Amino acid sequence: MAARNMWVRQEYKPNKCKFEQPFELEITLVNSSGTKEGDEMKLTRKSRIKKLKLVQNYSALGSTVWDGSIVLAKMFDNRRLFSETYLRSCRVVELGAGCGLVGLYICLLGAKHTTLTDQTCCISLLEENVRFNIPKSDQARIRVKEYSWGDRVDNLTESGLFQLILAAEVLYSAEDSLLLAKSIPYLADEEARVFVSMGRNRGGEQSFVDVMKRQGWTIREVCYEVVLIAISAGICPIVKKRVKFPYWGVY
Question: Residue 92's pLDDT is what?
Answer without folding.
Answer: 98
